[in-house]
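Re: the multi-chain job from yesterday

Posting the exact lines I submitted so nobody has to dig through the queue logs.
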Amino acid sequence: MKIEALAIDTHPRNSWKSFDLGCRMAMQWWWPLYGFMLCSTLPFFLLFTLLSPEYGVYLLWLLKPWFERGLLYIHSRQVFGQQVSVVEALKAWQSQIKVYWLASITWQRLSPSRGFDLPVAQLEGLRGEKRKARLRLLHQTTDDNSFWWLLICLHWELFITFGLLMLVNMLIPLGFEWNIAEAFYSESNLILIAYNVCWYFALVLIAPLFIGGGFAAYLNRRILLEGWDIELGLKKIRNRWSAKQISLLVILVAGLMGYAADAPVAYAQTNELEQATEELATDPEEPQLSEDALKKHTAIKESLQEILAGPPFHNKEMVRDWRWTGWKWESSESEEPPDLSGWMGVFAVIAKFAEVILWVLFISIIGWLLWLSRHQLAKLLNIKVDLKKQKVDLPAFSRHEKQQGLPSDIPAELDALLEQQAYRQVLSLLLVSSLTYLYEKHDLSLTESMTELECLAEIRSKVQGESLRFMTSLIQLWIDLAWAHRWPNAEKMAELCTQWQQVFLTVEAGETP
Amino acid sequence: MSDTLDNDILQQATQKIAVLKQNVSQILIGQDTVLEQVIIAFLAGGHVLIEGVPGLGKTLLIRALAQSISLNYKRVQFTPDLMPADVTGHSMLDVSSGKFVLRKGPAFTNLLLADEINRAPAKTQAALLEVMQEHQITIDGESHTLDAPFMVLATQNPIDNEGTYPLPEAELDRFMMKVQVEYPELSAEIALTQGITANSHNVQTINSVISAEDVLSLQELASKVLVDEKIVEYAVALVRASREWQGVAHGAGVRASIALIQTAKVHALMQGSGFVLPDHIKAMVFPVLRHRIILSAELEISGVNTEQVLNDIIAKVPAPRQ
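And the result, structure tokens for all chains:
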């Protein structure tokens, strides 16, 4: 890389000026850039649109990074003074895609700094960890606006696309009935093709600017990091001056750097060094003094070398992370404690007590809020809450069952109630136990506000077979008793209890009803 | 079927109602729910406020109903210059005899269609208060009882509010139901269009299927439908919930509870049941309560409508349990 061959001025810029420079570069070399872009993308665009007017452009959008490789190739050659023709760029294009060909259209496709990162892989040829380290270094600045550059270019693309669409709409003759807003929601391919063409033109127009901006930002970052401007300046001086002049200049620069390196530590010793040098210079006739001065001079020099070798002059390391720096009041520990005698002491105790209360209150409120939003949190964190274990307010159908709950031995309880001819309680127990069972097995959506027929409709939607038949006759019997005041006969009740045992007890034993 | 109602009588009653419904639906196609609710209100002895855009067959409905029962039918087009006497009637001096003669207004009928009731000013609307509540008309201090059965069917347009007088709450409360008439489904609309253009949907062509006496006996039968105490408690709980509901500025009153039970009884009778189920009450909540609830401004601004509130009330109030 011959930086002296750079076609751009190498002074340090901020990122926005770099993007501006990139645009000017693209305008300067527009012919090879746009020629390449049209030649490489047009066949793909036509093919994809032909295959699918609806989804073809998405495929082209996905493959866009491959076309950008060719643009970067042209930019990178032109910026170093090498003229690249469209044909040359097309010939070289295949070799430029090889590096990260798959990554660039898959997981790196949506990288917000794609334009800025591309030269590292394509021009520097770095891969894997080296590439990552290089990118880390390049991005290690507060002036990294590569994402905003991408966003700006994206907006340009959108504005141009819709602007062109509007232009087409405006240029349609009056006699021709075609409304763009209506057509947009219609199933016609015409609007799709029109949109595709407009988007394609926007793509061709913006891509060289985007890559140019990213490349210029990359170059600028390297100028800043590697001091290309200084190097170039020195090279120019070397070309102008003789070897002696250069040596003097180097000594002068080194001296100035040494002087300015670290004033608080090195200043005194530098003074001593100067003093010793002066001594050496002023008393050449006195060997004793000269020896001392030499020793002193060597010691100071060694000491200086030691300081210059250590931090902060070398092995600079920048670490960015979060660290606990302690409570603010901890820093004032050394201060004298306040006088807390008398009323102030009482207030201090109250304040301490209030602090504890407030903390307890605060933690309780947080806990309460978390408890209230436990279902939402479980949904958010994708944790399955075991609803079965929660208390469910099922329709009880009888206040007795609601108050007492289900007995442990239901068949025995049913027999006892049948003997007492307590049919209302028998039906209610059958209903509640069956509903509880079906709710657990089939996850029924039953609520307190549901009537008997609504419960049956819900059961019908989720339960089939013997269970459904049993529930239908059970609920009908319950309705007759509860709302029509018709007392069931003993045989029917006994039959129902037997059916219940057949349906639900066999299910519990592992059979499917 | 029931302890109180004989099974045969119940079956006959259900059959009569089904025939009446079938007869009217020959003319009014695709409005089964509207028709069912109007018949329920009629047999429950109530009045109906029908809301719907023009041209949905509101007048046709009442004409077909009157024709099917061979009842008198009158229509009054409510306009801003309509006076109370134009509805109820007035005394007029007979010059030949020198005495005041009663000139009966259109309210002296069995079925009164008050078309676009909200176009008339409040004083004319108020003329209907006594008629609707007491089934009588007082002219010059003399009360005239109306023939039974009697029902007022009032219509109003929900979209055209220019120059209208919204019905006062007292008037609204006297309507047992507010029925929403929507556009019919595609197939029904096609059938309706074909029928009318072929002149086969003429009200005059339908026969009278039940008599006024039948109507009165059905009304009496409906009053005998069994209602458990818990069902009444449920109906009252729903109405009370509408009063205590957050965001409801004005809830339903006692008349709503009574109307809920009355209409649920007819609904049960219509389905051949001699007793009322909680489902019958639920089915009547919307037509009975929707016009009796006034939402707060906050709720209206936030886009909540009465139907949503009623749905929430139904979902919140526990169903009756024995």
